[in-house]
Amino acid sequence: MSPPVKPSPPADPAEFAARGAERAGLARIAALALPALVVLAAEPLYVLVDTAVVGHLGRVPLAAVAVGGTILSVGVWLGTLVAYGTTGRAARRFGAGDRPAAVAEGVQASWLALLTGVLLALLAQVIAAPLTRALAADPATAAAAASWLRIAALGAPGLLLAAAGNGWMRGVQDTRRPLVIVLGANLLSAVLCPVLAYPAGLGLTGSAIANVIAQSLSGGLFLWAVIRERTALRPRPRIIGEQLVAGRDLLIRGAAFQACWLSATAVAARFGVAAVGAHQIALQLWFFAALALDAVAIAAQSLVGAALGGGDGAAARDVARRVTLVGAVAGTAFAVVAAAGAGVVPGLFTDDPAVHAQAAIVWPWFVGLLPCAGIVFALDGVLIGAGDVAFMRTMTLIAAAFGFLPAIWLAYALELGLSGVWAGLALFMLVRLVLILHRWRGARWAVLGATR
């Protein structure tokens, strides 16, 4: 990796200060976070529409899309890694005043996305049947899921190309085009899905085709956007290799999260059907809150990367301070809403009194963790924008291995119920909070220059 180069500041000190203040302003954070929130929410909202359409086809199609969608979520996870890894690198180049180099990061990320997407699409054709049989006990569901997955996986190249496009556009602080592209593609898919499923008579296959069309259109538009930048399009293995290193660390970090969530669900299930039902409700609401709070993290990635790339460590620290405040306020707002809905929200998911009783045990933990989550997620964005992903990987592994996993398995051994499970989640967040605040207060994350 090339050594960081600190660019010269503007000749006018007042201009330099004004630039740093503009980057760190709350209005600028909001201008980046709000469109990012819409883009983040578009895919889950479409999934709800797709689920509703398929649900009216019958029990087997609904179960099939649940199984197939779980497998295909690996592609979505990889897309998130590509987007997050590209944003920080592109933002540094952009902040250094080298927009073509920032776009070049997007070109190389697009090559990586395209190759990975094609590999996933081909792999799905081979492993769809054995994977769905392993996940679905019912043969009819497994067969339908395999058929759906083989078609839906053809959209993987477009899905990952869109992630790469989102990444470099966030890096150059272009939030309008991703918003238009993602909303347009998901709206088209939401229209096509019921049309292909019902009037066209394609049923479950229509759902898969609608997914492929929307993802391919989105990926194609992002690809066209990078081509129009008139940047060299040939692959550059060195840059792709550097992106893979960042992606590797984010991948390991994500795997630690998955291990925690799966372990939590497994332990909750051992306390009975009502307990795991209440846990699932609270966990899905937690994921929804995390999705919304990630919009602040995305703004932090872009602004911190740009400030460090421009050699302005003071502006980067100001951004970190402000997004931490915004994250805390947003997390507290979610907590207030969740607390107010304690007696209502579980009833929207089930009318089972036993599940409601278990939800009442979980709810104080869920509410209490939200302000902490707002701070942690915002600072996650700061460190990703700074390219400090190796620390984030290590921090998450420490929190999982020495906090969360021992706590919840102890909860199982001592039969502490859902309180024990969510105490483990609380310990996981607390360890991450302590470690990330310690890192934030130091200077090692704020490396100046166009590259880290």
TrEMBL record:
InterPro entries: DinF-like, MATE_fam. GO terms for molecular function: antiporter activity; xenobiotic transmembrane transporter activity. It is found in: Membrane. Pfam families: MatE. It is a multi-pass membrane protein. The keyword Membrane applies. GO terms for cellular component: plasma membrane. The keyword Transmembrane applies. Keywords: Membrane, Transmembrane, Transmembrane helix. The chain crosses the membrane at residues 29-49, 61-84, 109-128, 148-168, 180-202, 208-229, 250-273, 285-311, 323-349, 361-383, 395-414, 420-437. Belongs to the multi antimicrobial extrusion (MATE) (TC 2.A.66.1) family. PANTHER family: PROTEIN DETOXIFICATION 44, CHLOROPLASTIC, PROTEIN DETOXIFICATION 44, CHLOROPLASTIC-RELATED. This is Putative MATE family efflux protein. The lineage of its organism: Bacteria, Bacillati, Actinomycetota, Actinomycetes, Micromonosporales.
